[in-house]
Write a structure and sequence with these properties.
Elements: H1 2-38, H2 41-54, H3 58-70, H4 74-81, H5 91-103, H6 107-120, H7 124-137, H8 140-153, E1 159-162, E2 169-172, H9 173-188, H10 193-206, H11 211-225
Antiparallel strand pairs: 1-2
């Protein structure tokens, strides 16, 4: 009799826990939907975190990391899904790792994930990110390949956003690639400044409001005019 009571008590606890977990899942799923409707980022993060604890899934983890990334919480995004490249990474996970690593100034690691993105779905936008990072890393040959791909495949209506001014602005993606070509040219041969300036002029011709290209041109001209002893 005592044994039967213990068995019944055990199953009562199991059933109670199952019901409790089911209730919590329903609660946080409803909470998640409501926070999304309200545009409450912290509420969305809270809901997804609880859902991941209650019923972990890679899809939920990727979604949580994406919300962190979109909210410029890049370290939290990376802590959620890691930084290593694995074949089972979803396309979203690869994007999060690439963008977040770039944002925290880890270009070498970011390149790995941008390369994966490019292999899975080559686009001029991913090519631009790769070229930009490779120029930073001194990989001029790799950057040149990505730049030529971008110039060949960019459409006239494609734009790229820049943020070096207080007010963000967009320029033609072709102009952005041409600006990178000028930076790459300078990296290849710092003595031939005129060759780099030619590309800056070309970028400005495509998009006269390209502030970063204008600043790069000014910096190159200043370097050109500086006495040799100051270089």
């Amino acid at each position: 009799m005592k044994k039967n009571l213990l068995v019944l008590a055990f199953f009562a606890v199991v059933i109670g826990n199952a019901q409790s977990k089911s209730d919590l899942l329903s609660h946080y799923e409803a909470f998640y939907k409501e926070m999304r409707l309200q545009g409450d980022v912290n509420g969305v993060i809270n809901a997804l975190t609880h859902l991941n604890v209650l019923e972990p899934s890679q899809q939920r983890r990727d979604t949580l990391a994406f919300v962190y990334m979109k909210n410029n919480q890049n370290l939290q995004a990376l802590n959620t899904i890691g930084i290593e490249s694995t074949p089972t990474d979803s396309d979203l996970a690869v994007q999060i790792k690439a963008v977040s690593l770039k944002a925290i100034n880890q270009p070498q690691r970011a390149v790995v994930h941008f390369e994966t993105m490019f292999k899975r779905n080559p686009t001029p936008y991913v090519a631009y990110e790769l070229a930009d990072l490779k120029i930073q890393l001194g990989d001029n040959n790799g950057a040149e390949t990505n730049i030529e791909y971008g110039l060949t495949n960019s459409k006239d209506d494609m734009k790229y956003a820049f943020y070096e001014r207080q007010q963000p602005y967009e320029v033609s993606l072709k102009a952005a690639f041409t600006h990178l070509k000028g930076l790459m040219q300078f990296n290849k041969n710092k003595e031939d400044i005129d060759a780099a300036i030619v590309y800056m002029d070309e970028a400005l011709k495509i998009d006269p409001n390209f502030n970063l290209a204008s600043l790069s041109k000014q910096a190159l001209e200043s370097r050109k005019q500086a006495p040799k002893t100051e270089e």
